[in-house]
Give the backbone structure.
Amino acid sequence: VTTGGAVRRIALRAAAAKITEQRGRSWLFVNALLVGQGAAPTGFNVLRTASENSVIVDIVAPSAEWANHVVPAWAVFAKEIGVDGIHWDVPETLEVDLASDPQGLRSFLEAAQLTLVQHGLLQTMNFVDGFGFDVSFTAGIGAASVGSLVAFPYWTAVKMKTTDLLVKYGCGGFVLASYPGNDQAHADEPWNAEHVGRFPLALAMERWQEASLHGGVYLAMRDGTALLRTRDDYWSQSFGWLLASDAQGLQDAALLPPMLPPAGGALRRPPP
């Protein structure tokens, strides 16, 4: 939950149970490397101090030691609320912060997995522009993702063009986040710099189709009919509700199976 308000655990458990009922998988979204300013224990490498959603935080370098420090508590909480695993988020600047050395991310994931499997949990990670991802992370992916370091690759396009990202890393079974923007001006959206003048909905349709053709899925909507516009994790800011015809257009563009209409008439994709 990233809206900033208090949420009762019973609500989280109910949400996770509902997703399971719908044959989906639920994930606890956790900022893996962020702590309050000055809160990192002695001995851990603080890369820099930053502002995250108007909160001053320290960014800690990923490592096996850091995973051993933070993952156990998150694993207990995730198990309690009934999610399938933890999605580790990382700062978009991590490649620069780590001087392009991704080894710390692998070490973090390997150590985190040792803890998570004890609780029957999976993990994913946000690989910004593919940084830190290695095809070996998906070794053993199957119906239950047994043996894989991540349940599936999750990539966010920030500086890299979506097409280049898919050509380089598109190994199937991934999630692509390449947000279509606030409007056709695409101000302060470097990942959309080549698409000034194009409407976000058109970009979303194109990217959903590209992801589908490469064997993955595109992170496009929330609640079935609200289009995610930027990489802002506060999804309540998604710009409005799509018409059923627009949602159908997204489905058609991506060559997806028919959407299922739940109670109330909202549209959603069949869960993977």
Notes: The mean pLDDT is 80. The radius of gyration is 19 Å. The chain is about 30% helix and 15% strand.
